[in-house]
Design goal:
Elements lengths: L7 H4 L16 H18 L1 E4 L5 E4 L4 H12 L11 H14 L2 H13 L5 H13 L4 E4 L5 E4 L3 H16 L3 H15 L3 H19 L7 H10 L5 H16 L17 H26 L2
Antiparallel strand pairs: 1-2, 3-4
Helix pairs in contact: 2-4, 2-6, 7-8, 7-12, 8-9, 8-12, 9-10, 9-12, 10-11
Length: about 290
């Protein structure tokens, strides 16, 4: 943790320094921080109507009236005539949702808001910072559409986000899309589906580096290694990981007469991080070759 964020008690060893949270954890303090970012945005945009006499009525205003109305009708799937832009009830309903609903439902709502075309860019940046400071095992990839991606630690979340940026800068949008899907599959509890998408991300890069290679990762890696674009040790290491995914039934091939694949959350998160790092490495090789 950044020393500047340590309290006196933590810095002097009187209190334990908070460690990174685990997946599926969204403690009360983090929920409060998330709500505070939202409320600050609402408060800046609220509009006033002066009623009879000195009475003043406050409403949700600016871009947020469109975002919250869309959340009411499209996310919660409620009737439009039941929605009100009255400031206090709107805030209370959203705060109650963030404070009481399961972590995945809170993230579903946040991702809906982040992806709304009127979502303010500063809100996305503030929420990214909040996730990092709360040590959540998730990060926000701000590229359109913004996506909440899981990681075992905040550092791994930052590494995945950095890999996505590297792939996009190299023009490898297909690989970045597979990594985002891998993250979404973890959020949905589809561990095998996530591993498959992670591997597809590396396959996509390998094929773009060597379009003549086969459509699976093994021959593509062999081709890259053969022409000096990939160190043999890295080729061997990733070939073994690829073999692991091929051995587990249901990850790469649907074998309906077999039991479910022996893949859990830990394996899916590891493969997301490993494949993000390896795809990013290949992406940098691709960019370096293109610049020559």
């Amino acid at each position: 943790m950044n020393d500047a964020r340590l309290s006196f008690s933590q810095a002097q060893g009187y209190e334990e320094i908070p460690g990174p949270l685990r997946l599926e954890e969204l403690p009360e303090a983090a929920r409060t921080r998330i709500w505070n970012v939202l409320f600050a945005q609402f408060n800046k945009s609220r509009a006033m109507t002066r009623m009879m006499g000195l009475r003043v009525h406050w409403w949700i205003g600016g871009n947020w009236i469109y975002i919250l109305r869309a959340a009411h009708t499209d996310f919660h799937e409620l009737a439009l005539d039941d929605w009100s832009s009255d400031f206090r009830p709107a805030c209370k309903g959203l705060r109650d949702y963030i404070e009481t609903r399961p972590f995945n439902k809170v993230f579903d709502l946040l991702q809906f808001v982040l992806r709304h075309p009127r979502c303010p860019p500063e809100f996305i940046s503030e929420m990214q910072q909040t996730f990092a400071e709360c040590r959540l095992a998730y990060a926000i990839d701000a590229a359109r559409p913004p996506t909440i991606v899981p990681a075992a630690t905040p550092e791994e979340g930052a590494a995945v986000a950095d890999a996505l940026q590297t792939l996009r800068r190299a023009g490898l949008d297909g690989s970045a899309a597979h990594l985002r899907k891998a993250g979404e599959r973890i959020n949905a509890g589809d561990w095998a589906g996530s591993v498959s998408e992670s591997i597809h991300a590396v396959e996509s890069v390998a094929r773009q580096l060597d379009p003549g290679a086969a459509k699976t990762l093994g021959p593509a890696l062999a081709s890259l290694s053969g022409r000096g674009a990939l160190h043999p040790a890295l080729k061997t290491a990733f070939s073994k990981l690829y073999g692991y995914t091929s051995d587990q039934q249901g990850i790469r091939h649907a074998l309906l007469d077999q039991t479910d694949p022996q893949v859990g959350q830990d394996e899916a998160v590891f493969m997301l991080g490993a494949c993000a790092a390896f795809a990013s490495y290949l992406g940098r090789k691709h960019a370096a070759g293109a610049s020559r």
